[in-house]
Fold this protein.
Amino acid sequence: MSMNPQQRQFPGPDFPGQPANPSWMGHVQPQNYRPAPGHRGGAVHQVIPEAASTVAARPGAGTLGLVVTGGILAFVSLFLVVPFLLASTGVTGFVIGFVASLIPLAAVLSAVAIIDRWEPEPKRLLLFAFTWGAAVSIAVTLLIQPVFALAAPDTNEAAFRDFMTTVQAPVVEEFAKSLGLLLLLLFARRNFDGPVDGVVFAFTIAGGFAFTENILYFGRAIAESGTGSDLVQIFFLRGVMSPFAHAIFTGTTGLVMGLAARRGHSGAAVFAFFVGLVPAMILHNRWNSMGQDFLAQYVLVQVPIFVLAVVCIVVLRVAERRLTRQRLQEYAAAGWFAPAEVELLATPAGRRQAVRWAASYNRGEQMKEFVKAATRLAFTRQRILSGRDVPAHQHEEAQQLRHLTALRAAVQQ
């Protein structure tokens, strides 16, 4: 990437003459820049003392508390959600709807796995996100709905139904889903510090919500018609034409919150929660407002929105790879990696090549762990350079550098 001669540079001795912000995702204010810890071939314990690699347990405790609390809330929510579903669908409809809902769910979770492949989020947090969407957000929606029903026009049944579909559903459902994002941001900030993280968590929450909602729609089609004809029609609409609808709605909130988390402090990111709800609610409203000209609006509006979402995700993935290379180059300048290693660790083709090479020596799994550890290190450095919780993240950096050295030795054995 060519450098603008007027672009400001960081004068650090370990990384001289490099551009300050070669990636928009990795934007760093000059006053926050800190050189990477120097290695230069010295013994690791001389560079990173043992005491310096002990990380405080508070971030992990916060994440554990979030997961446990989320599990309890999800369990309690089932006592409201499951009876509601059974009353609406019957046992047969519930079972059939459950099985049919697994298909669009698989599509959403597969997309999450692809988006999250570069820097995977902890499985416990993804589980929290899914259970929040599938149980807690549904329960919150059911509890808030009656309030909106009181405000709905009662002139006729059609006006009431239109209000609940185009106003109540977008507002209440997006708020309920995004509450899970807010909790992740507040209590798992170390893992929610960028737009890709926001999209991954939002898609997972939305996938869980859509899964439960599809059980209701699919099961109700069986209960009301007694045949599979209505189910086929509704499944085609929700499972084939729009499996990613909820994911795109809530994904806009996650994207806005992730951008704020990358660039600002917790207060700015919390403010972004309310800002991000606006496009999510608007998109949800537009989807629910499609009427007799549904097919035309679907082709002319919804399909382009889906394509735009895909393009945005691709752009985010490219920026994520560039950020990884940018930060690993700084560690290379400090002596932790050879320049050629950075290319192997910071490109998809390089990663595949490294794993194949290590696998030929029965070290494929060790190389995969080495790649993951290097990526985590790059993003830890980004958090350090953002100027947020610097001492805690430097402790984490020290631990990761020691772990990375041990993984390198395991690969080279």
Notes: The chain has two domains: 62-289, 303-413. Confidence is low (pLDDT under 50) at residues 1-20, 52-59. Strands lie at 9-10, 18-19.
